[in-house]
Write a structure and sequence with these properties.
Blueprint lengths: L6 E7 L6 H9 L8 E7 L6 H11 L3 E5 L5 H11 L4 E4 L4 E3 L3 H12 L3 E4 L2 E3 L2 H11 L2 H4 L3 H4 L4 E2 L4 E6 H7 L10 H11 L4 E3 L5 E4 L4 H21 L7 H13 L1 H8 L5 H20 L8 H31 L1
Parallel strand pairs: 1-2, 1-4, 2-3, 6-10, 7-11
Antiparallel strand pairs: 4-9, 5-11, 6-9, 8-10
């Protein structure tokens, strides 16, 4: 593209042949009232047709550039985007999402209107197939997401984190980008550092996108397991960033592990925490099914249980692993 763009969109990608074309089509439909947008797709050594798809887009649209990320991690891809960005503003997009035509314009408008260091929208989940739709409904529920406003907020306001995000490029360079020693949760950690520097994080439902979940229960378990395990790593560095929602699932898993002791000491009363969880799970599943589709009801309790066990067990494992790793490194 000729001239200097106003905004740079960065899209990390690895093996997204099934998603990247529709993502780019929705992204490229964005325009600004004045100024241009460049789109940097940063590929982490894809082994499918992802690169060829992006190269075809770049051949017919000069706004698109394909960059290579030999480190593969999303944090490294994002930092490459920061380094290569020519726009005064930088917007992060995800290959699994589709974007409203005013996504970029609304992000820039709110950056200036609020003075925030980062603005973003709500992660509105969608899925394909019966399992995918049920997973999308479950992860959007407070029973899975707690009070995470980026999942279900209906009003704008100041928050601890947002889905994706938009920044002034100078702010990101001041921060030093994302930490590449964090395989997961790097975006949340960067928002912690952003707030420590005095920059607010602002969420608005008017920044609209749709995120397509991974329609597989094993993939969902791995995803939430990684979230829980790496959350501990972030909390070690930023203990003040802990939120109650992050501790509920680990407490539940700990209570399951303690069940033999509680049953031995209290008899059937020592099982009441399991009964309480089952009742809450079925009730939450019924609420979600009533709002979406009753055909989801048979699988929703299992999805909620999978999310809670994956996050909680991995969080507890992280509580052991990360301190032991630090001790070994000190020897």
């Amino acid at each position: 593209m000729s001239g200097t763009p106003t905004a740079t969109v960065v899209i990390p990608m690895r093996n997204e042949a099934g998603q990247i074309a529709e993502c780019l089509e929705s992204a490229l439909a964005n325009v600004l009232p004045s100024g241009a947008i460049e789109f940097l797709v940063v590929d982490g050594a894809s082994t499918d047709a992802s690169r060829e798809i992006v190269e075809a887009f770049a051949a017919r649209d000069s706004r698109v550039r394909l960059l290579l990320n030999p480190d593969r991690l999303q944090a490294a891809a994002f930092n490459i985007g920061i380094r290569e960005a020519r726009g005064s503003y930088l917007i992060r997009m995800d290959a699994h999402s589709r974007y409203a035509t005013d996504y970029v314009a609304e992000s820039l408008r709110l950056l200036e209107a609020t003075g925030a260091g980062n603005v973003g929208g709500v992660q509105r989940a969608a899925g394909s197939g019966a399992i995918g739709e049920a997973i999308a409904a479950a992860v959007s529920s407070p029973f899975a997401a707690g009070d995470a406003k980026y999942r279900n907020a209906t009003e704008p306001g100041w928050v601890d984190t947002v889905y994706l995000g938009a920044w002034r490029t100078t702010t990101l360079r001041e921060l030093g980008g994302m930490r590449t020693d964090l395989a997961v949760n790097e975006d949340y950690e960067m928002n912690v550092r952003l707030r420590q520097l005095g920059h607010g994080v602002y969420l608005s439902p008017t920044i609209r996108s749709t995120y397509f979940v991974r329609a597989s229960l094993p993939k969902l378990a791995r995803q939430y397991g990684r979230y829980g395990f790496w959350k501990v790593r972030t909390l070690i560095d930023h203990p003040g960033s802990v939120r109650w929602r992050q501790l509920v699932a680990p407490a539940f898993v700990a209570s399951i592990l303690a069940t033999p002791l509680t049953f031995a000491a209290l008899g059937p009363v020592g099982l009441m925490h399991l009964v309480a969880y089952a009742v809450a799970n079925v009730a939450a599943s019924a609420v979600v099914a009533a709002k979406t589709s009753w055909r989801h009801l048979p699988v929703l309790p299992w999805i909620f249980l999978l999310v809670h066990l994956s996050w909680g067990a991995s969080f507890l494992a992280g509580l052991v692993w990360w301190p032991l790793r630090a001790i070994r490194r000190e020897r």
